[in-house]
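Dear H.,

Thanks for agreeing to be a second pair of eyes. The structure we're designing against is below in token form, covering all 379 positions.
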């Protein structure tokens, strides 16, 4: 298949008819449409990057609903709206560590789960969880053959909006190999937090994008948590994929010879050369038969035909979150299981808008966009 034909498949999210399981439909579509428009960007390499200095960023972007605060050599951006919604973005990692939203009972609730632990080899504090952009790009280098790159250090390009309506922080990351330009845009609106990516192929050969925008949703316990609307979706069960952003319970071994990370290596990008597009065996796939899926058991599932909107309901905390997908064709769902203490650091659910099994192909000169929207319908 020609590159242009491949890429056209990646620009259109699958059309899913509305079902009775969705808590809403129009509000999230109108919220996505009303977010601040993104102008076509110049090449990232030509953009002057502000220094990663909290004082400088505060002076440059003050009065727009965002406050910058230094944390050692790094800093955080604190987004807030007049209705009480807020989010915290770590820089330069690009990790969203908090999203608080007003609830029906009048208080604000933290919707994300993060864990702070000691870094490897006794290093500084390490923060995991929240909402992360964990993707990699692979393509042909002019001199080095097959090359890969993962954006890890993000710089603030711009801040737009105001605290009364919507606040948007735009980040950029530079690829030293000259394959792609990447923009990462975090938008806080009333009842919606959007995490969006824009990947421009600036090279001369097609590139493949793999990975996910992954959210750790805070719940009382997976035993009281349900995923609504997955009935009829095709899926593949896979071991949890390793990541420097993921929260894993201590019994999940991603490093040992017998760990889940070793199992996942069997299904790395180069393992999909034969068989169908997903390179899977029959016994590992299935079709979801539960429209009200309880997340009690430990699970790691990639859905290849899930609806665009997915609702996560937590009966213990009496709230729900609607997750909307754009651009990505896969949905990743992970539960650590309910054997951990309720309301503990392992009481969470992972939801990811993903290209883990089948990559997104971006041809030279083309731009691909994908994102995730977390909607709070609890007012």
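And this is the sequence the design step returned. I haven't edited it by hand at all.
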């Amino acid at each position: 298949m020609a590159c242009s034909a491949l890429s056209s498949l990646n620009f259109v999210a699958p059309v899913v008819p509305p079902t009775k399981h969705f808590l809403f439909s129009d509000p999230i579509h109108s919220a996505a449409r009303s977010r601040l428009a993104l102008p076509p960007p110049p090449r990232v390499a030509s953009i002057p990057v502000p220094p990663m200095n909290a004082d400088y960023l505060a002076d440059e972007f003050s009065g727009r609903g965002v406050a910058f605060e230094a944390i050692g050599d790094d800093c955080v951006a604190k987004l807030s709206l007049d209705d009480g919604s807020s989010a915290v973005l770590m820089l330069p990692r690009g990790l969203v560590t908090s999203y608080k939203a007003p609830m029906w009972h009048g208080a604000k609730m933290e919707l994300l789960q993060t864990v702070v632990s000691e870094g490897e080899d006794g290093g500084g504090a390490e923060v995991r969880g929240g909402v992360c952009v964990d993707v990699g790009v692979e393509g042909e280098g002019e001199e080095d053959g097959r090359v890969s790159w993962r954006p890890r250090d993000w710089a603030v390009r711009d801040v737009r909006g105001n605290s009364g309506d919507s606040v948007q922080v735009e980040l950029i990351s530079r690829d030293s190999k000259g394959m792609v330009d990447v923009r990462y845009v975090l938008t806080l609106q009333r009842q919606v937090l959007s995490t969006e990516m824009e990947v421009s192929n600036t090279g001369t050969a097609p590139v493949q994008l793999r990975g996910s925008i992954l959210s750790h949703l805070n719940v009382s316990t997976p035993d009281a948590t349900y995923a609504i609307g997955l009935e009829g979706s095709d899926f593949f069960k896979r071991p949890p994929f390793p990541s420097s952003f993921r929260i894993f319970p201590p019994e999940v071994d991603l490093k040992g010879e017998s760990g889940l990370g070793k199992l996942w290596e069997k299904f790395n990008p180069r393992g999909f050369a034969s068989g169908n597009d997903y390179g899977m065996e029959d016994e590992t796939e299935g079709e979801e038969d539960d429209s009200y899926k309880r997340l009690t058991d430990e699970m790691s599932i990639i859905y290849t035909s899930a609806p665009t909107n997915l609702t996560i309901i937590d009966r213990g905390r009496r709230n729900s979150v609607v997750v909307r997908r754009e651009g990505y064709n896969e949905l990743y769902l992970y539960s650590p299981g309910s054997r951990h203490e309720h309301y503990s650091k392992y009481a969470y659910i992972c939801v990811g808008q993903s290209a883990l099994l089948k990559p997104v192909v971006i041809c030279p000169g083309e731009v691909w966009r994908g994102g995730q929207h977390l909607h709070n319908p609890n007012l």
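Two observations from my side: Residues 26-34 form the longest helix (9 residues). Residues 4-42, 254-283 have pLDDT under 50 and may be disordered.

Warmly,
E.
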